[in-house]
């Protein structure tokens, strides 16, 4: 028998976060706001992909973006140029967003008139995968220069996302990148994952990605 009490801090943190995330999803459903949590490593082309996505959909739906970063506002300034409503979240050194932080961002953004909200999470493949943000769906970007072994190195991230965008396929011939191997590894971790190869630079694959968003927004609001 132990002489002292043991507190499982991490377990309590996750339980509290998950409850808040479930509550946040109910509020988003009520407001008919679809929230996409977009994750990736730095340099994957996340902001460029978002710009292409917004420009493809901004005439069809009201779009808002929550930009999360440790300190800078560079990406928020870029997204602002698309005409989408933007709010910047500074995490103060934290390498992820949780449901509480996401809720603060949504309050600042306002969801009553937003059909499609995008949460651009902090750039890494570890911490963001551990926290439920309350999003309607999760997506991630893996860029070709990062290598085809990432599903082996970061299995949790690949197992919790609904969509995997494989970006920069326009330069795939210049890298030792096995596209089929990535698909096989990702689907072994997550049989229901949707995989879309894209090039945010050339626009290849963006139509398929945008069609997926249209379908999911419609489902969410039905």
Architecture overview:
With 222 residues, this protein is of the alpha/beta class. It is 41% helix and 18% strand. It has a seven-stranded parallel beta sheet, with helices on both faces. Helix 7 (179-189) links the parallel strand 6 and strand 7. It is globular, with a radius of gyration of 18 Å. The model has no long low-confidence stretch (mean pLDDT 91).
For the sheet with most strands, the description reads: 7 strands, parallel
Chain-averaged pLDDT: 91
Instruction: Return residue spans where pLDDT drops below 50 for at least 5 consecutive residues.
Output: none
Head-to-tail CA distance between termini:
54 Å
Fraction of residues in H or I helices: 40-55%
List the helices and strands in order: HEHEHEHEEHHEHEH
Please report the number of helical segments: 8
Task: Record the SSE blueprint.
Elements: H1 9-31, E1 34-40, H2 46-57, E2 63-69, H3 74-80, E3 85-90, H4 99-109, E4 116-120, E5 137-143, H5 150-153, H6 155-160, E6 163-167, H7 179-189, E7 194-197, H8 206-221
Parallel strand pairs: 1-4, 1-5, 2-3, 2-4, 5-6, 6-7
Concise overview:
It contains 8 helices and 7 strands; from the N terminus they run αβαβαβαββααβαβα. By secondary structure, it is of the alpha/beta class. A 7-stranded parallel β-sheet has the order 3-2-4-1-5-6-7, with helices on both faces.
Based on the model shown, name its key terms:
8 helices; 7 strands; 7-stranded parallel sheet; 222 residues; globular; alpha/beta
């Amino acid at each position: 028998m132990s002489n002292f009490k043991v507190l499982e801090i991490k377990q309590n943190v996750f339980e509290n976060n998950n409850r808040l995330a479930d509550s946040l999803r109910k509020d988003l459903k009520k407001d008919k706001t679809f929230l996409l949590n977009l994750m990736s490593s730095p340099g994957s082309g996340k902001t460029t992909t978002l710009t292409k996505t917004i420009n493809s959909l901004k005439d069809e739906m009201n779009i808002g973006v929550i930009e999360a970063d440790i300190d800078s506002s560079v990406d928020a300034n870029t997204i602002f140029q698309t005409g989408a409503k933007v709010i910047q979240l500074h995490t103060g050194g934290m390498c992820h967003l949780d449901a509480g932080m996401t809720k603060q961002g949504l309050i600042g953004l306002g969801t009553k008139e937003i059909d499609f909200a995008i949460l651009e999470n902090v750039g890494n493949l570890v911490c963001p995968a551990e926290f439920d943000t309350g999003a309607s769906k999760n997506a991630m970007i893996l860029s070709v220069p990062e290598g085809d072994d990432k599903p082996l190195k970061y299995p949790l991230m690949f197992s919790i996302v609904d969509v995997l965008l494989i970006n920069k396929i326009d330069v795939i011939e210049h890298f030792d990148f096995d596209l089929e191997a990535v698909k096989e590894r990702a689907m072994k971790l997550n049989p229901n994952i949707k995989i879309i190869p894209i090039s945010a630079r050339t626009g290849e694959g963006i139509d398929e990605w945008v069609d997926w968003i249209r379908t999911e927004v419609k489902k969410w609001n039905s």
